[in-house]
Amino acid sequence: MKSNPMINSFRFLAILTFVILHAVPGHGQQLIPQPSELAYAEGRFTITPETVIVPHESDDLAGYLNDHIERVCGFRLRTVPHTPETNYISLRRGGHLGNEAYTLSIEPEHIIIRGGDRGGVFYGLQTLFQLMPPEVYGQSVASAPQPLTLDAVSVKDGPRYAYRGAMLDVSRTFFDKQAVMQYLDWMSRHKLNKFHWHLTDDNGWRIEIKKYPELAEIGGQLPNNGRKGGYYTQEEFKDLVNYAKERFITIIPEVDIPGHTAAVFAAYPDFKNAVKFKTKVNIPGQAFNALDVDDPKAMQFTEDVIAELAALAPGNYIHIGGDEAIGLPHDKFVRFINKTREIVLKNGKKMVGWQETARADISEGDVIQHWIYLKQKSENSSKKKDNIPAEYKEIMALFAEFMKEAPKDPGLGISKKAKVILSPSGYVYLDHKYLEPSADSTQNAEQERLGMAAYEKQTIQEMYDWDPMTFNPTVENPQKDVAGIEAAIWCETITNFRDLQFLLMPRLAGVAEKGWSKVENTHWDEYKVRLGAQAPLWEKADWNYFKSSLVDWK
Ligand code: TNX
Known about the structure:
Layout: H1 5-22, E1 37-47, E2 52-54, H2 62-73, E3 78-79, E4 88-93, E5 102-106, E6 110-115, H3 118-130, E7 148-157, E8 163-169, H4 177-189, E9 194-198, E10 200-201, E11 204-205, H5 213-217, H6 234-246, E12 250-257, H7 262-267, H8 296-312, E13 317-321, H9 330-346, E14 350-354, E15 367-370, H10 380-386, H11 393-405, H12 409-415, E16 419-422, H13 425-428, H14 444-449, H15 460-464, H16 478-481, E17 482-489, H17 497-504, H18 507-516, H19 524-532, H20 535-540
C-alpha cells in the first residue's frame, strides 16, 4: 500500500499523544480463550473520529462494533462501502478460513478482521474488544471524545469444538430477561455458542405454554425458599432467541422430563405420577416424581409442550432432560424416552438428553450429555451416606444402582451412534464451592454460602486442569464421537443474579477456553496470568467474580 507522508506524520503525532492516554496493558496477555496464533508487531493503530468501517455487506456487524467503540471513544465511526487508502477497520469474509475462524490484524494503517463466515468476523471482534480498555465492557458511552490506540498484532484463530455451550438453571432460581441477556453477553465474549436453557425442574416451570397456562401460572410460582417466582412469556422467549442469534448463540431449550417434574404435578395434579415411595422424601433438589408413559394425558401433554417449544426455538435441537428419574421402572423410562424422541423428530428437531437417555433406543443424530463424573479427592462422600436416615434405604439403594449404571452411558450412547456433549460434573459444574480462599475477605460469606454442599470443594485450578479429549476413557474415540463441551450452572444455592455471577466467573472463562483453544495453548500457569488481566474488564462490567487467591488480579 502507498503511504502518504502527510498522513504518516499526522499519525506519528497522534500516536505519540494518544498512546500516553490510552496505552493498552499486557500486550494482549488478556485474551481468553487463547487464540491459536498470536504475534506482536511494531507500531500501533489509532481509532479517531475519521476512521471508517468497511463492512462486508451493507451494515453487517458495523453497528455492533460501533456500540463498543462508542463506550471507549465517545464517538461512532462512519461506514463506507469501499476500502480507502488508510485509517479504516475492515470486516471481511472468506480467505479459506473455516466456520467461526478468523484473522485479526492491527497494523499502523488499518485493522482488518477476516472471518471464514459471519461468526468468524464476530469472534474477531470479540478478540478486538478484549484488546481494548475496560470501558468496552461498561454500560455507558464515553462522555468526551477520545481516540483509542491499539498495539499492532496479528491473530489467526478458530475453535477446537463446534459445540461450546453453557447451561443455565432458571428453575431453581428464576432470572428475568435482562439477566439472561447479560448471561448471553458473557457467553459471547468468551466465544461460547450454545445456550442450554434448563427451563423446567421440580422448583419451577419457566416457559409459557399456551395450551397449558397453569404450567407457568402455578408451576412458575411455587413456594421456593423465599425466592421470586416467574416465567418467560413466549414473546420474551422469542426476544431472547433473537438476542442470542445476534451473538451467534443458538438456544437449546430443555424441558426436563419424565423426572424432575414436581412443578408439572403441582399445576396438573391429575397426571399420574409413575414414582411412588413408601417414605415421603425430602432431599434437596430431589422430588422423586415422573410422568407416566402409560398415562395418555401425560403423553398428550408431552406432545403439546414439545410442539410449542419446537415452534418457538429455531435451533436444531430440543433437550428433553431425562436425568435422575429415580424410582421410575427401567421399562417405563425407556418407553417414555423413545416416545418423546419420536415427538421431537416429528417436530423437525433433533434430540439432546442427559446421559441416562442413552439407555433408551436412541440412534444416529441424537446427542447425549455426559455429566456424571465426579472427582472424589477424599473419603468423606461415604461418611455422608452414613448420615442418611434409615427410612431412605429404599431410595438410597435405587440411587446406588443408578450410579452404578452411569459410567456405561457414554459408551452405550456411542454404540448407538449418538454424539456426546461433555459436561463432566467434576470439571464443568460451576456450582462446586470454591476451595481456595478469596483474595478479598469481603467475599468470605458469599463463598461459604454459595455452591452445593454435596460436592467436594474444588480450586479453580483443579477445575481448569483437564483435557476434554483424554479425561475419560469410557469415551474411546473422542475425535469422532465428541460434539463439544458445555458448562452447567445449577442454582439450588443461588438466590439472585449477583450470586450467579460469583459462581460463574472466573470458571466459565476456563471452560470456554477448553472449548475453543488448542490443547497445547491451555496451561494453568500461563492461563492464570491472562485470567488476572481480566480484572479491570470485569470490574468495569460490575461483575461479581470470585477473586481466587490463586490468581494475581491486576
Ligand atoms: C444433578 S446434572 C442434576 C441437577 C442438580 C445438579 C446439582 C443433572 C442432569 N441433574 O438436578 O441441580 O446435579 O449440581
